[in-house]
Amino acid sequence: MFKKTTVRLIIIGAVLILALYSLYWTIAYYTMSDKKKEELRAKGKLEKYEDRTMRLGLDLQGGMHIVLELDIPKLVESIATNKTPQFYRALNEAAEEYRKTEADFFNVFLSKCDQYKIRLIKHFTNRGFKNDEIVKSLENEAKDAIKRALEIIRNRVDQFGVSEPTIQRAGQYRIIVELAGIQEPERARKLIQSTALLEFYLLKEPAVTQKFIEAVDNYLKTGEKEVVKIDTSQGEDTSTVELKEAKDKAVSVSELLGKTPLGAAATPDSEDTTVIVDEELFRERPFSSLLRNIGGMVGVPEKNVRLVKKILSDPEVQKLLPYDSKLLWSAKPRRITLADGTTENYFLLYHVDKDAAMQGKYITDARATIGGTGSQSAGQPIVSLNMNSEGARIWARLTGSNIGKRLAIVLDNKVYMAPVIRTKIPNGASVIEGLEDMSEAKDIAIVLRAGALPAPVDIIEERTVGPSLGRDSINLGVKLGIVGFCLIIVFMAIYYKLSGLIADLALLLNLVFVLAIMSAFGATLTFPGIAGLILTVGMSVDANVLIFERIREELDRGKTVRSAIDSGYARALTTILDANITTIFAALILMQFGTGPVKGFAVTLFWGILSSLFTAIFVTRTIYNYVTERKVLKTLSI
């Protein structure tokens, strides 16, 4: 059987090995060159280091500082059930004045409604009868929306993997987000801003889309709006000329449009721009010449997108669009290989029903994964969706009654895919394909799980910040901490001699264990956290001082060394536990309710106290036991 002291030594050795293993990842990560990090990131291996590494806070390494503002006018617009031109006039004028003067939006909106004699009861149901009652209800809705937005953004950031972010309200409708050491600011920005509005739209018949394109061609050519009766009974696809037959050439916008109604307005900038058109359609069908047929879908060469958007945004062109439809763009371009072997990017333009056939509020779970074998997305990143029972019923009815039609999967007004419905889907399962990589799939899954924002959020301020305390202040603080630590070690060694050296060893182990614990849990070290770490060193010394003084008292009473050590630890234990346990409770409260620097301080304080209890009591006692068991000591250097 192992002796008690041997078991204690084995425990200390095992803990030390685990601590050094945890510290290895942190040391390796922060000593690694940027080139090496990029190589590992390309191989997908850097994440292994990042998951096991202690992070540095915003005050130590810098990061992103973003100020978001909830779009209150958009929130009010989304709540309204009836939207008349007069309503939009009051809303837009109120929004403009609100942004210019920063006056209270709801007071301005109420005054505009009174000015134009708008009865809000016609636009909002179940919110009262008088205008002021309804506006008060909308204001309460906005206060609730900012709380929900705060929670949703916090959930997204937590799942994104940023440790110890600062997310807090600033004023009525603003949120401050600080992300330390962020590696992909564009990805984080998209994740935070995304409203995560998932919708499913049925596409219009190709014949309907073709008639609209012909009407735009006629308008650009003659300046006349032609009312076309659409006959969808034929159902044939006459979208645009096949890509392989297109004879492309570059022309200027002014040459394309000439003296058409959009001749001047269509130019995106003051200077003339060049677009790619189908030479055979160039004169007779100016709008069609900008488009291509991509597998039966309307494609737009990337160089032409700006001009096509400008044409489609013209009020007169919008009137040509069937009243029950709208146009949406693909989320990203599709790379197509041309007949001559070259490749070019094309965005797809989708003509869909005006109202969504189904919304994503029925989604209960979203997971990023890799498509299985036998599917079109085999080996590609996808997001698999699951719906609740109500959503499954709607999904089954939708897919069952529209077999053979295309259904666009739309996230934040961008189409990710538009597959053909082949069969009825009874269980509510579906997938989002067409994703660029696993990071994008994970981000989409995150925003869908965390929920949709109640309204869009606008970035009104964004900056990349360096260490907030300044590099000189940080270096000075770290140096002072090291000097203080060294002074404590020297004092203990001089004053308590051999026992002081044992206490110093416990202090070093305490520091190693705390840093190892923070590395293992991926915690964040902030400047206040360093202060908490130094405080735990002092508390650890305090515990050893209490023990040593009690041992001295027992030796002065004439007890043997072994007996004095036993009595000293027994007498000091209650006092040490009382002081440390109350501090642990305080640290737990700060960890739970504190944010930013307060939480950073509490994290190191909590783990530091637990570690100091282990080292100051268990480790030092084990060393004393080991020494006294091997040799009978008549005196103790203390």
Can you describe this structure?
This protein has 638 residues and is of the alpha+beta class. The chain has helices at residues 4-31, 34-43, 46-51, 58-61, 72-79, 85-101, 105-115, 131-160, 185-193, 206-222, 253-257, 305-312, 315-318, 389-400, 438-450, 471-520, 527-556, 561-593, 597-630, and strands spanning 55-56, 63-70, 166-169, 174-180, 198-202, 248-252, 274-278, 292-294, 297-301, 325-330, 334-337, 343-353, 358-359, 363-370, 381-387, 407-411, 414-417, 430-432, 457-465, 524-525. Helix content is 52%, strand content 16%. Strand 8 (292-294) and strand 9 form a beta hairpin. Helix 1 (4-31) runs antiparallel to helix 19 (597-630), helix 6 (85-101) packs antiparallel against helix 7 and helix 16 (471-520) crosses helix 19 (597-630). The longest helix has 50 residues, at 471-520. The two termini are 33 Å apart. Mean pLDDT is 81; it is low at 232-244 and 266-271.
Keywords:
4 domains, 4-stranded antiparallel sheet, Gyrase A, domain 2, Alpha-Beta Plaits, alpha+beta, 9-stranded mixed sheet, 638 residues, single chain
CATH class of the largest domain: Mainly Alpha
Counting helices, strands and paired strands, the structural category is alpha+beta
The count of domains is: 4
Strand portion: 15-25%
CA-based gyration radius: 34 Å
Largest sheet, in brief, is: 9 strands, mixed
List low-pLDDT spans.
232-244, 266-271
Count of DSSP E strands? 20
Enumerate how many helices there are, as a single number: 19
The CATH architecture of the largest domain comes to Up-down Bundle
